[in-house]
Design brief:
Blueprint (H helix, E strand, L loop, with lengths): L2 H11 L9 H10 L3 H20 L13 H11 L11
């Protein structure tokens, strides 16, 4: 794949793929990563994960090691159902 031709075309048009971002723009981007809907979804999923841990009598999440975490999450996601008991579509 010859990237030089596309790069040359961009420069011929007077623009680059990368721009210089101001500090104000960087701050706005960083603030946007904490969107309220994302925060609510994360909080909700953490609540469900902690309910799973309690119901299965597993170690508290704070006591789970980095090596144990992948297996915990694998089991959680495969055991998780909707509130009506139906499995999520794969």
């Amino acid at each position: 794949m010859d990237l030089s031709a596309s790069s040359e075309a961009r420069f011929d048009l007077g623009f680059s793929r990368f721009k210089t971002t101001s500090n104000a723009e960087k701050q706005k981007i960083l603030e946007g990563r904490n969107c309220s809907s994302t925060n609510r979804a994360t909080k909700s999923m953490m609540k469900i994960l902690n309910e799973y841990i309690d119901e299965k009598c597993l170690k508290n999440l704070d006591e789970t090691t980095n090596d144990e975490l992948p297996e915990l999450l694998e089991n959680f996601y495969s055991d998780l159902t909707k509130q009506n008991g139906e499995r999520y579509k794969l």
